[in-house]
Amino acid sequence: MSNLKYQLNTRDERGFISDLKAEYLYICVPFIILILVKIYFGPVRDIIYSSDWSLASSIMLGQNAAKVSRSVARVKEKVNGNNFSWYSAKRFMLVIVSLFFYFAMIFKPNLYLAYSQIFIFLFASWLHFSDGFAIKMLERANNKR
Q: How far is CA 129 from CA 25, 61, 139, 145, in A?
């Protein structure tokens, strides 16, 4: 996304990863509580068919897109606008897809949609860490100036 080339030492990397884990934990705690409530009050099938997976995915994807946009706006270094536009378009489409699955699971739930939204949640979780690392690199570039 950028022409930034910074070498990270192991301590920086561990710090970035710890920050991302903490952010992820704060995102997932309410979601985990919802799952525990569903386990307590209903069958396990309700967890798989819950539309909460898609809602959590759209929140994670939207937060990451907003954070990257904010970091790109702050960084003084040259950021390739075409790459950033492509990134933004992909994340926007993923948010739309997540919301599509959210509404589909509310109105017409089925097993295919249920497993698809869980896959999207796992993908959004992975993107939380990959996008988050890019955000930390942009912030580091901005702080070095």
A: 12, 11, 15, 25
Sequence-ordered strand ranges (E) for the chain: none
Q: What pLDDT, in 10s, does the model give residues 39-84?
A: 888 888 888 999 989 999 999 999 999 988 888 888 766 677 788 8
Crossing angle of the two packed helices 111-144 and 52-74, in degrees rounded to 10: 20
What pLDDT score was predicted for residue 30? 85
Query: Which of 101, 36, 28 lies closest to 60, judged by CA?
Result: 28
Q: Determine phi and psi for 95, rounding to 5 degrees.
A: -65, -45
Identity of the residue numbered 22: A
> What secondary structure letter does DSSP report for 110?
-
Are 105 and 114 spatial neighbours (Cβ–Cβ below 8 Å)? yes
Count other Cβ atoms within 10 Å, centred on residue 57.
28
Return the H-helix or E-strand segment holding 31. helix 10-41
pLDDT at residue 9 greater than cutoff 90: no
The pTM score is 0.82
Decide: 76 and 121 in contact? Cβ < 8 Å: no
